[in-house]
Amino acid sequence: MRRYELMLVLRPDLADDKVQASLERTARAIAAGGGQIVKQAPWGRRRLAYPIDHHREGSYYVVLFEAPATAIAELERGLMISEEVLRHLVTRVERPVRAARGRDVEGDVEVEPPSDDEELEDEALIDESESEAAPAAID
To answer: Any long-range contacts for 12-18 (C-beta under 8 Å, 24+ apart)?
Structure first.
């Protein structure tokens, strides 16, 4: 499963119970698609860059979840038809690669320098015509 982040902008005039119901519907849609919520955080009420449906503010929520890629289309379809949601954005979150060995004190991965054989193989793959400058234009 892949990790995704969902940013929701809900209408600011919603009651707290309707906001919670909207977030629960979103959580059920994620679970129905075979995913699970990792973290859910409210960002609060913020001013929008431009008016959306005559609203100048919106209530922001961020949901971090894991789901298969096939579940995202169904989730977005549900969010598009919801009247409580002004805007939404689902982005894929890249997980950091963990190295089992070769870490130094700062946490950077140590990379061994290439051997002489590897350098020769790389040079043999480069065609010399690719490395030369383009010929001058002919009048």
So the answer is: 12/45, 12/55, 12/57, 12/58, 12/59, 13/55, 14/59, 14/84, 18/84
Measured CA to CA, the distance from residue 60 to residue 70 in angstroms comes to 25
Residues 10/84, Cβ–Cβ less than 8 Å: yes
Q: How many helices (H) and strands (E) does the chain have?
A: 4, 4
**Residue 97, both tokens:** 């690669």
- pLDDT 10s digits, 22-36: 999 999 999 999 999
The residue written with tokens 């503010």 in the block is 57
Instruction: Domains for the chain: give ranges and CATH numbers.
Output: 2-92 (3.30.70.60)
